[in-house]
Amino acid sequence: MASRRGPGEGSIFQRKKDKRWVGQLDLGYVDTPQGRRRRYKTVYGTSRKEVAERLTKLLRDRQTGMLPTAGPITLGDYLSTWLANRERSLKPSTFRNYSGIVDHHLIPELGRIRLERLRAEDVDAMLQRRLKAGSSAARVHDLRSVLRAALGPAVQRRLVTFNAAELTDPVRQDERRVTSLQPEEARQFLDSLQGDRLEALYRVALAVGLRRGEALGLRWEDVDLDARRLRVRYALQRVKGQLVLIDPKTKKSGREVVLPEAVVAALREHRRRQLEEQLLAGGRWVDSVPIYSVSDGRVSGTTSGLVFRTTIGTPLDGSMVTAAFHAALGRAGVRQVRFHDLRHSCASLLLAQGVPARVVMEVLGHSSITLTLNTYSHVMPTLMDDAAAAMDRALRPS
After folding, report:
1. What is the DSSP string of 74-136?
2. What is the DSSP string of 172-214?
3. Which of 164, 207, 170 is nearest to 345 (CA)?
4. 3-state SS assignment for residue 334
5. Are 328 and 192 in contact (CB under 8 A)?
6. pTM (2 decimals)?
7. What b-and-e string marks burial along 331-370, b requiring 16 or more CB atoms within 10 Å of the CB?
8. pLDDT tens across 247-291, in order?
9. DSSP class of residue 314?
10. 396 in helix, strand or coil?
11. Residue 166: exposed, middle, or buried by beta-carbon count in 10 A (0-12, 13-18, 19+)?
């Protein structure tokens, strides 16, 4: 029978069937991640004293905000719910990456552990297993980062008392050095592009450091050739099998840049050629491209006038562009680099020419100058040599 305790102190009783002592603490109704509501926190023991001590600890934890309320939910169930709730707030590419990490790594490794019983030791062991299995340090770093992000709301909602991933040490990564074309390689590549249908695309990406999706998402209304201005407003991505325009990677990515004269000339020629292709295509020409709203998770409208597209007007697939780019490098006799390395080449060339890092940051749309300096630190020794030479000239005796 139940043993009377003070209000809010919980109750203790002994079960008749097995004589086991049970204590229950009334939590009030709290929401669980599955959408259910629960009221009691239950503890068990072989004696009334043991249960009373456990209830006293629960009371102390509740008073200090350290009492988890998750109940018997597994980490796998929690991660699935968290991921589903994040779909509309994440960009499609980010959501795909998170889904792969959750579905193929976190849930298989840790999914059966109860959420409130997850410990830092469990996370550490999982990270080490992935490293031993051959996963890269960068990939394992991402596993920890996603799990840490997922557990943040669980702590805020008091489903758990601490973030187990946050208590682990980040996986050490070797500093990744970016790859970029040397000035002579860049000139050799550009010189070989005469007549290439995508010449203007490569020149724009190299000259102002556009990401591939940003370049493919350009519309003619975003380009003012007379004023030599280009505005990044969208990026082209594949979402649920469809090529659509979405907002740029970050708010800072939406930017306006000044175009070099050589790029303006290439774009004028590109536009002339595109008009010819449109005439040849006739009724097969497709000028509409969907705009995808990340917040709504659906197509919110359409636009037209893409700068770079197929011979019938449809958007260019990124993988096809990359294949064409590698073929162009081969014809030019230039070493193979990624399309994204044109962006790195832009930054490295600008810094090597003495352009201030703050200006390079604005051209690339970086969120901070620290990111620019850290990413292109390999260029800094040359700039420091130039700075020392400039100081020598300034202080040289007359």
Report:
1. BHHHHHHHHHHHHGGGS-HHHHHHHHHHIIIIIHHHHTTSBGGG--HHHHHHHHHHHHHTT--
2. P-PPPPPP---HHHHHHHHHTTTT-TTHHHHHHHHHH---HHH
3. 207
4. coil
5. yes
6. 0.69
7. ebebeebebebbbbbbbbbbbbeeeebeebbbbbbbeeee
8. 887 777 889 999 999 999 999 999 999 999 999 999 999 999 999
9. P
10. coil
11. middle
Provide the token pair at 196.
């290439």
Residue 305 in tokens = 């006038």
Joined together, the tokens standing for residue 377 give 């630190």
Q: What is the pLDDT of residues 153-199, one digit of tens each?
A: 988 887 888 999 999 998 886 666 778 898 899 999 999 999 899 99
C-beta separation of 175 from 181 below 8 A: no
CA atoms within 13 A on the CB side of 252: 11
Strands 223-224 and 229-231: antiparallel
Which position has the token pair 């280009």? 230
CB-based contact 191:219 (threshold 8 Å): no
Tokens read off for 242: 């469809």
